[in-house]
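Appendix B. One record, verbatim.
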Amino acid sequence: MIAVSADSPADGQKVAVELNLSYPILSDVYKNFIRQYGVLHPTEGIARPSMFIVNKQGTIVWKYVGSEAADRPPIDTVLQQLAAVK
């Protein structure tokens, strides 16, 4: 698991420490990755909350792109999708 943020590397690490995250936060300050995956919020210029599940072959097999900051998929849905990955 990784996270991608439009924040600076220092800000991303600060969040990781504050939230005690066990996975890395990658910085995309120029929003290249965020644009490539179609998750740039059209009016706010930030990444919408998103989740991608990628199989061993590197194919995206499921994705969820929220419409605003609090829009996250239910954990049961995520677990079902992970269980279905082959």
